[in-house]
Design a protein that fits this description.
The protein is mainly alpha-helical. 48% of the residues lie in helices and 0% in strands. It is rod-shaped and about 70 Å long.
Amino acid sequence: MEGWTTVKAQTELENVLVEVRLGTWMPPQPEPEEPQAPRTVRTFHEVASERLAGRRTGATASASG
């Protein structure tokens, strides 16, 4: 079984507090984020802006795309 028990958590807390008292404790570094794939789905803002621009010029946009 993997995970934290009360005893394990207490031991780790004591270890960290010793490091704090000694001045050697460093906060954990966040893991680097993986790059995200380019967005392929248009946002509501993009679709609405195109439709609004079409209305202003008198063009009509189809509901299918």
